[in-house]
């Protein structure tokens, strides 16, 4: 390896590429397992996870904002979840145009099973790391967002 390739700039670029590769690998496994075990997708899981955290429901605009996606993306996912009986819509008191969405009891039950498996899958994928290594990785990754660009 050339000396130039060990500059901090090149090392940071290599680190970014390794983080991206690791993320893509984990995400691909999660997508496959959700598809195989639940005939579901990662975006559907994310919508259900957000609604699980807000059991009283969220306005569609708040749901989109929390997921950092467009209203259009969320609308299609919510429509499918409603048609499957996993999510319900309710009118927002005092605002006839706004809709609140929340998990149904069936949605809560389905998400609980998905979330338990999701945790187990992540645990299996990250088993090679010791507790101390996990703490170190978490600390180091937390620092990335602490440094303004």
From TrEMBL:
Q: What molecular function does GO assign, one term?
A: DNA binding
| Annotated GO biological process | response to stress
Q: Which domain of life is it from?
A: Bacteria
Keyword set, alphabetical order? DNA-binding, Transcription, Transcription regulation
Q: Does the keyword NADP apply?
A: no
| All residue ranges annotated as the HTH marR-type domain in the record | 12-146
Q: What is this protein called?
A: MarR family transcriptional regulator
Q: Output the Gene3D superfamilies linked to this UniProt entry.
A: Winged helix-like DNA-binding domain superfamily/Winged helix DNA-binding domain (1.10.10.10)
Q: Does the keyword DNA-binding apply?
A: yes
Q: Which organism is it from?
A: Seohaeicola zhoushanensis
- Give a single Pfam family match: MarR_2
The family database entries (InterPro entries) matched by this protein are listed as:
HTH_MarR-typ, MarR/SlyA-like, Tscrpt_reg_MarR-type_CS, WH-like_DNA-bd_sf, WH_DNA-bd_sf
Q: Taxonomically, what lineage is the organism?
A: Bacteria, Pseudomonadati, Pseudomonadota, Alphaproteobacteria, Rhodobacterales
């Amino acid at each position: 390896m050339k000396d130039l390739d060990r500059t901090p700039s090149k090392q940071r670029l290599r680190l970014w590429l390794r983080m991206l590769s690791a993320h893509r690998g984990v995400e691909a496994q999660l997508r496959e397992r959700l598809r195989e075990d639940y005939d579901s997708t990662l975006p559907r899981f994310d919508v259900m996870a957000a609604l699980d955290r807000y059991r009283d429901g969220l306005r569609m605009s708040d749901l989109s904002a929390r997921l950092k996606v467009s209203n259009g993306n969320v609308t299609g996912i919510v429509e499918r979840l409603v048609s499957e009986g996993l999510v319900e819509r309710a009118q927002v008191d005092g605002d006839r145009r706004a809709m609140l969405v929340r998990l149904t009891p069936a949605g809560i039950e389905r998400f609980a099973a998905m979330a338990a498996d999701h945790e187990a899958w992540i645990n299996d994928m990250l088993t090679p790391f010791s507790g101390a290594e996990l703490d170190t990785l978490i600390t180091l990754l937390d620092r990335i967002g602490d440094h303004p660009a």
